[in-house]
Design brief:
heterotrimer, A mainly alpha, B alpha/beta, C mainly alpha, A: two-stranded antiparallel ribbon, 13 helices, 1% strand, elongated, disordered N terminus, disordered C terminus, B: 8-stranded mixed sheet, 4-stranded antiparallel sheet
Chain lengths: 305, 327, 325
């Protein structure tokens, strides 16, 4: 469609298309990665359409009956539908709970990832582009943060901030941004020394324009790679915090909250309340990591040689 | 006539890679008598190092010895399993590698690396092994060997490390040493010291030696016989004087022409035109044909077999130089 | 070498100072702690009294300086919940946490190293592929969920190992440990395995790539040419070479084991300082949180410092690189 409005640029999208096709082709060569991609796609679709698929709306108190609580997988609910994965401590159908929980887990993970990526990109670009003292201060902070384990930072933050979706997202952003900043600065430093940046500068382009239009696009490949790893990490970390009771509140039942709720029934052998949400969490993380592994192989030109 | 220490007959070692079969060594024959030094000369990729590793039984997948025979003191060793072969390695057969910086394990002390070599084949006390190591170190000219024994490799210079490697090779007084370009990585002055040392030691102990190199001038003063390899085959083999003074294969002739000291001062060095062919795709005829000034249709169609000439040597060429010049 | 050490120590002090500032202002900004310390029906006078008692009535910068002075003396105030000295409570629980982290570290090496070396020696073997797939899974598995599954499988279903608590402790050379009794080992087995999970995957990867790299080196071929047995080549020549990076990485990872033990200790009711931290977070027991953070940061900085200095002492290249900075 762009070639209708901008006929003189018709060659550019074509070339980009060719490169994109090559990239997709390389990605699809690996069967494990394709499996991961399929897994993620299914999970995302399930989460998106949860209200249509789920046998029960677990938030609708009128539909949830306490008499249905702690039923094993395959039991019939009082409403007549089969609870394939059993039910939890207050009688919610576990499958429905997981589908709705996925929405929250994915939302928190993605949102925090996007915000952290934007923040990290900006800070990393600024550090690389301006250098000197600004870069020094930024990189000191990044190093300081990366020298401490993320779980510790997140715990301290939620201890200070308290519970709530917004606070968890903030904590996850703080945990992640430094990885983006470091990566972007690394590749931006390489790009900055290249001739086209000199050329852009000598044409009198503004700093912002040079950074965003010329350096940024060339730093995106490594950012995409760490974005997958970091999103998986964020989802896992949110689940961990929620499990520990310092993450999301009961009113936002992410997978971590579901697992946490099942913990007390574990010792009496009612494993499914914790088990199935954990499997959903695991599949999500494995899927993202498999895709991320392949992306790293395909996008990293150093490994290609 | 006594039996040669090492007889290699029609050895072929191929590498089965994804891109196809690379015939790194393809029908090579030579033999080495006791106390004799055979120099194997060739460019990189000519199969000289692979020949050396084949004899040691150190060819790893995807490489494999596909045919031929290697006899040590008349005994076939190609068919031996790994455990039996291990008993020979380091004891009857020793090897010195190209880069002394890489052959000694950087994180182990010299004594660890030497004593384990003694104990691998002889059931002696550690004390006895240690004194044998000291003896071997002083044999190769390392001063105050007892103190140097407890040092780490990085505390030695390159030349000293190669002496240590040679000392390890000599520990069991092997019948044959394979030296794979052992002086290439060293300074020229140290190179000549090591050469002199090795020559003396071999003469003293009666050890036979295969000296692999790309440098004709190194083997000129050292070897008794020379085998020139090209693209996985021996193209000319014979006593050192005959091969160097009267080369019959155009490739040998070209190699000699490119040695600086063999040429009059102030004259341009000759080079062999072209480069080594890819071992995966050799021409059907003589492998040297594309670079050869004397190539004929016969050379393009038929690979020359190696055959004896009049002077006790063998050459694989349809148009040996003496005759080519005559005609 | 001395310049290098001085620079590293200065860096370490910078990190500690930065953390002191962050922790202080973090807790200061978050809200008035007085409300957590007084009963709900307290009068204004009572509130003011508590405020004065804890020094909350002073200006920020004075409070900060007092805080720094306290930190320098190792004084973090009294726990709101337990009443005792915060630092004392943390230090009481520290041996249990260190014991857990240490056993996890040992598990990581004992389990991860052989698997990684095998995968490195025979990269195309089906078992090696399984090991590598397992290590990818190990990176993806959420630690806390694996903990639950361990309890379900080994404690609930099989009944082999206890799910909670620490075994009886004995005091050896002033250190309290549960590792001298069989019961102690039974109690620590599951939590330590849980905590070790990520590090096992890490060691497998490091050992595999190290082994693959080392086995292509000339010194391995030379060792074979000496007629050494494969056992000796792998066990001495390769292992010694890959151990330096693995030990370095694991040294640095010890701090993260201590941090992660918050999760494991909570699941397995292990009476360490991580569990105490979580309880403190839930009860907003500020002095305990601050004391924990400072203790762990100090632990981290010290470990990093020691590993860095040791490494540079072992490897001359690091020192040279440092000079060129």
């Amino acid at each position: 469609m762009s070639d209708l409005t901008l006929p003189k640029n018709a060659a550019a999208p074509k070339k980009a298309q060719g490169e994109f096709a090559r990239f997709v082709g390389r990605f699809l060569e690996d069967r494990v990665a394709v499996f991961g991609l399929a897994l993620i796609s299914i999970i995302v679709l399930l989460a998106l359409f949860a209200p249509l698929i789920a046998p029960q709306n677990p938030y609708d108190l009128a539909r949830v009956d306490i008499m249905d609580s702690r039923q094993p997988p395959g039991a019939k609910a009082l409403d007549g539908f089969t609870m394939w994965l059993g039910s939890d401590g207050v009688g919610r159908d576990l499958l429905s709970g997981i589908l709705y929980g996925l929405r929250i887990s994915l939302m928190v993970g993605l949102l925090s990832g996007v915000i952290a990526a934007c923040l990290g990109l900006m800070v990393g670009l600024i550090a690389a582009y301006f250098g000197g003292r600004i870069e020094n201060v930024i990189m000191r902070i990044v190093d300081l943060q990366l020298s401490l384990p993320s779980v510790l930072i997140a715990l301290i933050l939620v201890a200070l901030l308290g519970k709530g979706v917004d606070k968890i997202i903030l904590a996850l952003v703080v945990v992640q941004w430094a990885y983006y900043a470091r990566t972007v600065r690394g590749s931006a430093l390489v790009e900055r020394r290249k001739e086209y940046v000199e050329a852009a500068r000598s044409l009198g382009l503004s700093h912002t324009r040079t950074m965003l239009r010329h350096i940024l696009p060339n730093c995106l490949a490594p950012v995409i790679v760490i974005a997958t790893v970091q999103t998986a990490h964020a989802i896992s970390l949110e689940a961990t915090l929620s499990f520990l009771g310092v993450g999301l509140p009961q009113t936002e039942p992410s997978l971590g909250v579901l697992i946490s709720n099942g913990f007390q029934y574990m010792l009496s052998g009612k494993y499914w309340i914790s088990f199935f949400p954990g499997v959903a969490l695991l599949l999500t993380i494995v899927g993202i990591n498999l895709v991320g592994d392949r992306l790293r192989d395909v996008l990293n030109p150093r490994l290609e040689k | 006539m006594t039996r040669p220490v090492l007889e290699v007959e029609n050895l072929a070692t191929h590498f089965f890679t994804r891109e196809g079969v690379v015939k790194a060594v393809d029908g090579v024959s030579f033999s080495v008598g006791a106390g004799e030094v055979l120099g194997i000369v060739g460019e990189s990729g000519s199969g000289k190092s692979v020949s050396g590793f084949s004899i040691m039984g150190l060819i790893d997948p995807p490489g494999k010895i596909v045919s031929g025979s290697i006899r040590l003191n008349g005994e076939e060793i190609t068919a031996r399993d790994e455990a039996t072969m291990r008993k020979v390695r380091g004891k009857d057969l020793a090897m010195i590698f190209q880069d002394p910086m890489m052959t000694l394990n950087p994180v182990l002390r010299i004594d660890t690396q030497m004593i384990e070599a003694v104990l691998a084949h002889d059931n002696v006390s550690e004390q006895a092994a240690r004194s044998r190591c000291i003896e071997a170190l002083s044999m190769v000219g390392i001063p105050s060997p007892a103190e140097r024994l407890v040092a780490y490799p990085h505390q030695f210079s390159g030349g000293m490390r190669q002496r240590v490697a040679i000392a390890i090779a000599l520990l069991h007084r092997p019948k044959l040493i394979i030296a794979d370009e052992p002086t290439t990585a060293l300074d020229v002055t140290i190179q000549s010291q090591i050469l002199a040392e090795v020559q003396k030691l071999c003469a003293e102990t009666g050890t036979a030696m295969v000296w692999i190199t790309h440098d004709l001038s190194v083997v000129a003063g050292l070897a008794d016989r020379i085998a020139v390899m090209y693209a996985g085959r021996v193209v000319e083999e014979g006593p050192v004087e005959r091969v160097l003074e009267n080369p019959q294969h155009p490739y040998t002739n070209g190699l000699i022409g490119s040695v600086p000291s063999a040429n009059p001062m102030g004259q341009r060095l000759r080079q062999i035109p072209g480069s080594t062919p890819s071992l995966g795709r050799l021409p059907p005829g003589c492998a040297f044909e594309p670079r050869c000034a004397f190539a004929s249709d016969l050379c393009r169609q038929q690979r020359p077999a190696i055959g004896p000439d009049s002077g006790g040597a063998r050459v694989a060429c349809h148009h040996p130089l003496s005759r080519a010049r005559a005609s | 070498m001395l310049a290098f050490i001085i620079r590293r120590v200065a860096q370490a002090l910078f990190v500690v100072l930065a953390m002191v500032i962050i922790v202080f202002f973090g807790t200061y900004v978050v809200g008035d702690p007085v409300w957590m310390m007084v009963p709900g029906d307290a009068t204004q006078d009572q509130i003011e009294q508590v405020r004065r008692e804890f020094g909350f009535d002073k200006p920020v910068h004075v409070q900060f300086l007092l805080f720094v002075a306290d930190v320098l003396q190792g004084e973090f105030g009294r726990s709101y919940v337990h009443g005792g000295s915060a630092i004392g409570l943390i230090l009481d629980r520290m041996p249990a946490t260190l014991e857990l982290a240490l056993v996890a570290l040992i598990f990581a090496v004992v389990i991860g190293l052989p698997l990684g070396v095998f995968a490195g020696l025979k990269p195309d073997h089906p078992a090696a592929r399984t090991i590598m797939a397992g290590s990818i899974l190990g990176f993806s598995l959420p630690t806390f969920w694996v903990g639950l599954m361990l309890i379900m499988f080994f404690s609930v279903m099989l009944g082999w190992l206890p799910a909670t608590g620490r075994g009886p402790t004995t005091t050896v050379l002033g250190i309290e440990t549960s590792l001298l009794t069989l019961k102690g080992w039974q109690h620590i087995a599951l939590p330590a395995l849980n905590l070790a999970l990520l590090k096992i995957s890490l060691v497998i990867r490091l050992a595999r790539s190290g082994t693959r790299e080392a086995s292509l080196q000339d010194y391995v071929k030379f060792a074979r040419a000496k007629g050494l047995s494969p056992k000796r080549i792998v066990g001495v020549h390769i292992l010694k070479n890959i151990m330096i990076p693995i030990v370095t990485v694991l040294g640095l990872e010890f701090g993260s084991l201590v941090a992660f033990s918050v999760v494991t200790e909570t699941i397995f009711a292990w009476p360490g300082m991580g569990k105490l931290l979580l309880e403190s977070i839930q009860r907003l027991d500020r002095p305990l949180i601050v004391a924990y953070v400072m203790v762990v940061v100090l632990l981290f900085v010290t470990i990093n410092l020691i590993v860095d200095i040791l490494y540079s002492a072992l490897d001359p290249r690091v020192r040279l690189a440092g000079k060129n900075e």
